[in-house]
Amino acid sequence: MASTKPLLSSSFHGNQIFLSPPTPKTTKCSKLLIPQSILNRRPSNTTLKNLPSQATLAALLFSSITPQQTLALDTINPPNAPPPVIQAEAPKPIPSPFSQNLLMTAPKPQTQSDIPDGTQWRYSEFLNAVKKGKVERVRFSKDGTTLQLTAVDGRRATVTVPSDPDLIDILASNAVDISVAEGDSGNGLFSFIGNLIFPFLAFAGLFLLFRRSQGGPGGPGGFGGPMDFGRSKSKFQEVPETGVSFSDVAGADQAKLELQEVVDFLKNPDKYTALGAKIPKGCLLVGPPGTGKTLLARAVAGEAGVPFFSCAASEFVELFVGVGASRVRDLFEKAKSKAPCIVFIDEIDAVGRQRGAGLGGGNDEREQTINQLLTEMDGFSGNSGVIVLAATNRPDVLDSALLRPGRFDRQVTVDRPDVAGRVRILQVHSRGKALAKDVDFEKISRRTPGFTGADLQNLMNEAAILAARRDLKEISKDEISDALERIIAGPEKKNAVVSEAKKKLVAYHEAGHALVGALMPEYDPVAKISIIPRGQAGGLTFFAPSEERLESGLYSRSYLENQMAVALGGRVAEEVIFGDDNVTTGASNDFMQVSRVARQMVERFGFSKKIGQVAIGGSGGNPFLGQQMSSQKDYSMATADVVDTEVRELVEKAYERAKQIITTHIDILHKLALLLIEKETVDGEEFMSLFIDGKAELFVA
Ligand SMILES: Nc1ncnc2c1ncn2[C@@H]1O[C@H](COP(=O)(O)OP(=O)(O)OP(=O)(O)O)[C@@H](O)[C@H]1O
Ligand SMILES: [Zn+2]
Question: How far does the centroid of ligand 2 lie from the alpha carbon of residue 560, in Å?
């Protein structure tokens, strides 16, 4: 039961900061929260980016993790949270097991029969049987020190497992089915992965991952030989013609304008060099995920008609020091031979973070990679015809050496699109889709502030899927509307069994939010009220904040006070109707919102006279770029007391206002609650008509 500003963040988004720009769920799930204990154990020069794939790999290897669980894990990271900071936790280099591997001799062939007798096999017997294809499946204990095997003839045996980095590879290359015993303790996937990725399996996993990405095992028996590692060349893609033009990138006019210069240069280098003009070698595309940075880079190449080389910086960095640097060298070698061309480096922050900033010392591999990149960029003169575009959403963490003149000295901001931009993006993504006449992009655009291009693409796609599921020939506004709500608030649980009593309670609760919202001066209009359960919420009230408000990101003191009153309206209605003793826990999200707003008003926005116009508690940061707005306390106990008192006062004041509105307009509260019980959803217009019938005053001061 949450009062939801669909378009502002809400309780659905977990720990998200209330006033931050909305971050609708997108289809992308790239970040995985990895427990510190595992991070500390991983080899020093892997990047965090590898970890999801590592986990995915584990998921593939160990069938007890389903992809769905991995997705569920993704959502543990609040959408706006910064990626876990890698620099603070760069662990000490761990000697690579693969170097030992070089010295290891292959196990001697066994003379025993293929399948040993007994229920306790020696490790060498086990390996031998595996290589002869006599082992069907193995099941590791949770700590990985023993395994249970099932032989092809159905016999079972136990093996004590030494720390052998090759084991997983050997098992996999002999098509042995691998799983891990599920424990009865622990809390789900975290502890599972925690126990799973004890060092040798982690190494083995990475080893496999690496080998896979190299295009298959290097030899029979799965022993590819560690020397393969240095020779990777396939870490970038080369597209001779992207076929993407600026017209495929809707909105982003400013960015296109700035990049037009790059296009001109690539098309006509002589014109510039004849005049002695210095052409930028590198250009940084900065903006939140999904805003079309990659698309823009492709469009630059497409417009100029030059080849497009792309790679993700995280893929440069692998297990061995020096590999990343050699990959960078390969990439530029190739690019220079095809100049003029575009080199696009995505997620440059993965290698481009400030050097030597980590607690555990520097990360050699990353440093070498970035040094190589800088060398390459310094190496080609302004007119070599290779232009490097790099993308990041964390420009703040980049090494300043990258931003020096002659490197990425230009920044192009690719921001979330505005109303008009969203209309055009919707148009682009409805090309080739059959749309009903009632679809109005303008209206959809107004309902989707904060959406990125990727979000809008996802929206249109979801709508198309819905239309197909409904056996329609066209996508109508209903499908788009339903898809939108689904994206914002999670799917409706239409079949959830809700008792009459609960339905009534939720109806009054939501009616309370809506009523207070409608009667607060200059508050956002109510768009829809629903008592169909959705996600965690028993019911929802949608408001439609104005575009200007969202775009400016500015909120007045009175707006925030209103917001708190609206959020409290649910609980107040419960109290008034059902009595103090019968209020429920349904308002807990509302309370969280309220206290967050109140605290921010006092601590950060200077809205408290006693604290004054200062920001205390936390270093701030720009949530737009995913920086942490930490709530770390950096003030004295005495100040903390004042803060607490001020926060409480704000909340109490809001509570009183909500109560006053609800008690004076209780007739409308009843009407709306009845309507909700009958129809389950009520839209804004219908709700407002209750006021006209009831002759309530619309705005009370
Ligand atoms: N301005 C836009 N016009 C049309 N489509 C867009 C636009 N922005 C994003 N998209 C769509 O969203 C998809 C994802 O965009 P893209 O990968 O370019 O984003 P990005 O900024 O590079 O994201 P990330 O930082 O996650 O890599 C694109 O394939 C494209 O279809
Ligand atoms: Zn509520």
Answer: 17
Spatial CA neighbour of 486 closest among 456, 510, 462: 462
CA–CA separation, 447 vs 435, rounded Å? 18
Q: Is 454 in the pocket of ligand 1 (CB under 6 A)?
A: yes
ipTM of the assembly?
A: 0.94
Q: How far is the CA of 94 from the centre of ligand 2 (A)?
A: 51
496-694 CATH fold: Methane Monooxygenase Hydroxylase; Chain G, domain 1 (1.20.58)
| Model pLDDT, residue 298 | 95
pLDDT at position 590 is 87
pLDDT confidence band for 312 (50 / 70 / 90):
confident
Mean pLDDT for 410-414 is 90
Contact 447, 547 (CB under 8 A): no
Query: Which residues have C-beta within 8 Å of that of residue 302, sequence separation ≥ 6?
Result: 241, 242, 243, 244, 245, 308
For 229-254, write each residue's pLDDT tens digit: 334 445 788 888 889 999 999 988 88
Pocket lining: 295 vs ligand 1, CB cutoff 6 Å: yes
| Ramachandran bin of 427, using left for φ above 0, alpha for ψ from -120 to 50, beta for the remaining angles | alpha
Enter the tokens of residue 119: 């229920």
Burial label for 4, CB within 10 Å (0-12, 13-18, 19+), is: buried
Q: What is the DSSP string of 78-146?
A: -TTSPPPPSGGG-PPP---HHHHHHHPPPPPPP-S-SS--SSEE-HHHHHHHHHTT-EEEEEE-TTSSE
pLDDT-derived band at 54 (thresholds 50, 70, 90) equals very low
3-state secondary structure 278-320: CCCCEEEEECCCCCCHHHHHHHHHHHHCCCEEEEEHHHHCCCC
Does the C-beta of 294 come closer than 6 Å to ligand 1?
A: yes
State which ligand 1 atom lies nearest to the alpha carbon of 421. Answer: 1
| pLDDT confidence band for 479 (50 / 70 / 90) | very high
Determine the average pLDDT of the residues in 544-562: 77
Domain ranges in the chain are 25-230, 237-413, 419-487, 496-694
Other Cβ atoms within 10 Å of 245 Cβ, number: 12
Q: What is the mean pLDDT of residues 470-482?
A: 92
Confidence at 371, pLDDT banded by 50, 70, 90? confident
Domain 419-487, CATH among 2.30.300.10, 3.30.230.10, 1.10.490.10, 1.10.8.60: 1.10.8.60
Q: How far is CA 428 from CA 160, 219, 388, 418, 684, in A?
A: 59, 47, 27, 15, 30
Tens digit of each residue's pLDDT (9 = 90 or more) over 74-126:
222 223 332 222 222 223 233 333 222 222 223 333 344 677 777 888 888 88
User: Model pTM?
Assistant: 0.54
Q: What are phi and psi of 101, to 5 degrees?
A: -55, -35
Distance 518 CA to ligand 2 centre (A): 15
